[in-house]
Amino acid sequence: xxxxxxxxxxxxxVVMARLNILHYPNSQLRKSALPVETVDxxxxxxxxxxxxxxxxxxxxxxxxxxxxxxKRIVIMDLSEHKNQPQVFVNPTILEREGEGExxxxxxxxxxxxxxxxxAERVRVSALDLNGEPFELEAHGLLAVCLxxxxxxxxxxxxxxxxxxxxxxxxxxxxxxxxxxxxxxx
Length: 185
Ligand code: NI
Hints:
This protein has about 180 residues and is of the alpha+beta class. About 30% of the residues lie in helices and about 25% in strands. Residues about 1-5 have low confidence and may be disordered.
């Protein structure tokens, strides 16, 4: 089943690696990612590894920034059966429209979810895995995910939309958790 998913992207037979996902408040998550100049095999390998990592987590979206790679790459799979992988290289939001609220979580902020206000509709341009440009109009969950993931590429997290109080509480809990994990290791 996993192989079928990747085969849609042309990764059949590729040996994939699971990457380490950085957790808030790791300062690497604050870096601004650089545009991908050429969509080559190294990019495609990274994307395959990102899918392996995201599906295993499990999550519905992942930005390269979260696996400590400062490149403008976002992946997503919003389907129930995890068989509709989507890749956005150098994604740019061209238009935003309306406003909506949705509860968001993040693989870099494990164990927390909060309501975030964002644009309801977005139009996005990006490159696919062949380096071909495409445009997409999104609303609902896809629009929210695109904004959330593109934020990551600019060093921004969903906790930045929360009150200082809420954000600090999340930060302290995750810092404590990281200390406990470091001690156990
Ligand atoms: Ni996230």
